[in-house]
Design goal:
heterodimer, A: PH-domain like, seven-stranded antiparallel sheet, 5 helices, 7 strands, about 30% helix, elongated, B: alpha/beta, Double Stranded RNA Binding Domain, five-stranded mixed sheet, 4 helices, 5 strands, about 25% strand
Chain lengths: ~170, ~170
């Protein structure tokens, strides 16, 4: 009986020690948004996994092999997958639904339920670049807000709240 | 005497015939191949057909990548690159989305024959002065397996081949 209690206590102690010795993922410092760089970022392979962090006026992409930084002031457009859908599903989408050659239908690049963030930026020579990132649902909008707050431009204004946007769309 | 006249007449006839042939050859509507040392790719336009931004970017980036991969041009310039301003034998590629057929990746995965996505793009090559030198309609398809991203790659490969075959100054490279 005493042996059994001791064994239980030891297991419990080991569990507590293990939990405190190795901090959980939730306790780790925030290292940016986990993304997949689909295409476009110079010096990064297609479909490279890494983290995206807007920091000190730069948008940094880090993966195990490369660290690429884009000055946020050079970002001419930031668009999320939701922005594209909003444009298509809103009034404009309804009207263009009747256009020929698939004009009003939404052609999505990705099948899976992912958030996308697309940026257009200029290099030092004025050359236009585009980069596409996919990430977990709900991550693109906060990232866009942060980029815009740090000086990036966007052709689709940020939605304040989803409720407000719903109310706006329902308005005749 | 009569024989000499005969020979002279034949000689004159032959000469005039050869001159005519040379002239005809010079006036034949041969399309001069305008070779260029560099190409500039402008951002894909889709004014009539609304495409998501990621689709446009994917078409543009894939096109540049494929042109660089294919070779034949000393430089592949991006839209807005100032370095292209000084290039005299530059060819500029403008691509406009004209239509698309929305397929389904799930259908493709299940049936492998149905669910084709296709995207139609009009490509116009101009010289530095904006004079059109070649226009062609191309399409990007994803027919069997894969996501819509593959349709953009398919177009890019065709666009790069068209540019390479018609304008590359060093086609062997």
């Amino acid at each position: 009986m005493v042996q059994r209690t001791t064994r239980r206590s030891l297991i419990l102690l080991a569990g507590i020690l293990g939990a405190t010795a190795f901090p959980s993922a939730a306790q780790q410092p925030d290292t940016g948004t986990k993304v997949v760089q689909v295409t476009g970022l110079a010096g990064v392979k297609a479909n490279a996994k890494g983290s995206l962090t807007p920091e000190n006026g730069n948008l940094q992409f880090d993966d195990s092999k490369a660290k690429v930084s884009v000055p946020i002031h050079s970002v001419e457009d930031v668009i999320t997958g939701n922005d594209s859908e909003r444009v298509f599903r809103g009034t404009l989408g309804t009207l263009t639904m009747f256009a020929p050659y698939g004009g009003g239908r939404f052609l999505s690049l990705f099948r899976a339920k992912l958030d996308t963030l697309t940026i257009q930026y200029r290099d030092a020579d004025g050359g236009l670049h585009g980069a596409i990132f996919t990430m977990a649902v709900g991550k693109a909008e906060p990232l866009k807000k942060e980029l815009v707050a740090q000086g990036a431009r966007t052709s689709v204004p940020i939605q304040e709240t989803s409720a407000a946007s719903n109310a706006q769309e329902k308005k005749p | 005497m009569k024989r000499t006249l005969h020979v002279t007449a034949i000689a004159v006839l032959l000469l005039s015939a050869s001159a005519g042939a040379t002239n005809a050859h010079a006036q034949a509507p041969t399309r001069p191949a305008k070779k260029a040392s560099a190409i500039q790719v402008l951002m894909i336009q889709s004014d009539e057909i609304k495409l998501p931004a990621e689709f446009q970017i994917s078409l543009y980036e894939n096109l540049i990548q494929q042109l660089e991969k294919k070779g034949g041009f000393q430089h592949v310039y991006r839209d807005g690159d100032h370095n292209a301003d000084g290039v005299t034998d530059l060819v500029i590629l403008r691509s406009t989305v004209r239509g698309f057929k929305k397929g389904s990746e799930m259908e493709r995965n299940v049936t492998t024959v149905a669910g084709k996505t296709s995207i139609d793009i009009h490509c116009q090559f101009t010289d530095k002065d904006g004079k059109s030198v070649l226009e062609r309609d191309l399409n990007g398809k994803v027919r069997f397996l894969g996501g819509n991203l593959r349709a953009t790659l398919d177009f890019a490969k065709k666009g790069a081949k068209l540019a390479h075959d018609n304008f590359a100054a060093n086609p062997a490279s």
